[in-house]
């Protein structure tokens, strides 16, 4: 069920792939180095959940969001780096591994990033960004002028954000959190202010890399379900709740990856100038709420499994139902930006998930998981039955 504004599949009917020679035509895949680097983000995602679990309050949720913003932009910077330059040089590989070590230190410090570990987290994050900018500048110096100019424009903004987080370690709350907000504004605003013209995107690589971060986030739901069930494995209701949690995660996975081929074709057909903006908006920006929705669902799922026979507390219920709703709402926004189509079924699913909130605070958590599973399965079944075309892809066709 979609609404098309007439610009699907690249913005005009029958548009052929751009052949001006300026866009990448290869189908480069994500390499083992990037997968190795992303292992630190598997741990970092679990640390975000741990940060919020230790303080299930509006303050705890706010800090979790700020931590996720900082981690996300660090990952985005490296996704653009490895998309733009192949890291064939031994020096570049070594520096990325050093950045991986710094990112691991930041992840270890993350649960205390707003208290005793603030300085360690800030300095580790700054090191991650310094390495990123250094590789960018060194690699672009041997490349075309347009790309080198774009990177020089963007470099200051890449360093200001983590520098502000370091400064935040020296002030007390709430000023510390306000500086984190300022750092996020710099991170996300600098590409809009400095401009991204001159950058380049390899469609196959860029989309595969962002698919990997969705897998990382979904992996956190599996970790959360396992951690929540560890103490009560002899209870059939707990085991049933784990199965329900996996089914919900699977519907999220199928919803996203069922359109990957169409998204890649859409980007390949986009002219090189527009392609960079599409990559920034649909992936660097709009994939963040997708990941955030999964992380909040993971938090709510863990609490649900731990308290399977009880109604959820309001904030835990909001994390569970709101996380699923945020994922589907972000899917709608992402597909609109990517394909210029409104996916009504996903929008209705977001609304339905949010409407489960009053149920979640009134009935045992296992029933809430059952209702959310039914909503996700019914939407997916409809999609697999109808097979709607969204952009250049057929929904539900997971590769």
Automatic annotation (TrEMBL):
Domain of life: Bacteria
Statement: the UniProt record of this protein carries the keyword Transmembrane helix: yes
Transmembrane segments: 65-82, 94-114, 120-139, 151-172, 178-199, 211-230, 236-261, 282-300, 312-330, 351-378
Pfam families linked to this entry: LtrA
InterPro entries assigned: Low_temperature_requirement_A
Region of interest (Disordered), ranges: 1-26
Keyword match Transmembrane helix: yes
Keywords: Membrane, Transmembrane, Transmembrane helix
Entry-linked PANTHER family: BLL5714 PROTEIN
Full protein name: Low temperature requirement protein A
Organism: Rhodococcus jostii
